[in-house]
Amino acid sequence: MRDHGAVLTWVSLLVGALRAVFHSRRALVLENLSLRQQLAVALRTRRRPGVRWHDRLFWVLARRLVTDWRRHLVLVQPETVLRWHRRGWRLVWWWRSRRPTGRPRLTQEVRDLIRRLSQENRLWGTERIRSELLKLGIAVGNGSIWRYRWRPAPRPPSQTWGTFLRNHAHAIWDADLLTVQTLTFRTLYVLFFISHGRRELIHVAVTAHPTAVWVWRQVIEATAWDRHPTYLLRDRNRIYGGDFVARATALGIDTLMTPYRAPRANAIAERVVRTLRNECLDHILILNEQHLRIVLAEYVAFYNVERPHRSLALEPPLPASRSPVLTSAISSRPVLGGLHHIYHRAA
User: Fold this and answer.
1) 3-state secondary structure of 301
2) Which three-class secondary structure state does DSSP give residue 67?
3) Sheet-wide strand order for 231-234
């Protein structure tokens, strides 16, 4: 094995000597230089060799000077050198085209003339102004005329949908019904009206036998003292009756009905239903119709005066006056037997 290895070594030396004899001096110098450059890169760091910008520049130039440059590469792939070459060409063309080119800018006199023509003749379009300039011996493109022509001051921006709804929220009420099961397995119906402006529960009524006449009676009670909305949003429940819209129109109320199977169209009323169940009805056993009226009356008073709302900056719909004294003792008052509490400072 040792003799075989010695033979291979001598053969490789002989091949190298023959190449040195038949190769030109220029090729040998370039090959030696490429190998020395890669050796310098390999010895620069201990781990992965770091290729810098001047190393890339060397191989980009070597690609143009040495025909068999691929054979001398050890640290990088030939495709990498080609990518460096393409990136270098992009830099060269960026350097050549860094000066702005194109048509010269219009003189200030021509720009002022375009602005004057468009301001004095507001019905003229771009092509009409261009034809007038051609009469005066001035050749200008439509793009330049569009850029320098006079434009009136922009109109004030239109209000957003959020602003529009906030401005009309006080004139919108919601109406909805929910069912409550009693201790004796009876079903009671609750009709309520809520205002969009301050989320105030305007009116709450309870019955065991809802009819269209009963619903209209609640509308009359809710709109007493000339307090009625401009728009009443409700679902398509048949309990309202077929003549509900005509009757409401006579009172100056425009009825808006939600689409079929679209509870989100009446989202505020649906949210109130969930609030009534989560904070009141799901925690109390209702005995009868009278008991439900008492419970709802107490909770509605708490809801309108004390319960904070995130949509109202954590204020209740009808905020009560607060004591400015901050050093007195804090007392509480239970609501619905202690289900909720109202806290205030003692006088």
Assistant:
1) helix
2) coil
3) 201-207, 187-195, 172-181, 231-234, 254-257
- Enter the tokens of residue 220: 């009359």
Secondary structure element (H or E) that encloses residue 204, with its range: strand 201-207
- In the chain, the amino acid numbered 343 is Y
Percent of the chain with pLDDT over 90: 39
Q: Which amino acid is at 248?
A: A
* HEC letters along 162-188: HHHHHHHHHHEEEEEEEEEECCCCCEE
Q: Domain coordinates of the chain in residue numbers?
A: 2-96, 108-148, 166-345
Q: What is the largest distance, in Å, between two alpha-carbon atoms of the chain?
A: 121
The CA–CA distances, whole Å, from 277 to 227, 284, 341 equal 28, 10, 18
Contact present, 105 and 114 (Cβ < 8 Å): no
- Buried b vs exposed e over 30-40: b needs ≥16 C-beta within 10 Å? bbeebeebbee
Say how far residue 281 (Cα) sits from the centre of its chain: 37
Distance between first and last Cα of the chain: 109
| The model's pTM | 0.56
DSSP state of 333: E
b/e burial code for range 296-323 (CB count within 10 A of at least 16 → b) = bebbbebbbebbeeeeeeeebbeeeeee
CATH fold of 166-345, please?
A: Nucleotidyltransferase; domain 5 (3.30.420)
Which pLDDT score, from 0 to 100, does residue 186 have?
95
pLDDT digits over 79-109, tens only?
776 777 777 777 777 777 766 666 677 889 8
Listed in sequence order, the residues at least 6 apart from 237 whose beta carbon sits closer than 8 Å to its beta carbon are 177
- Work out the average pLDDT over 47-73: 67
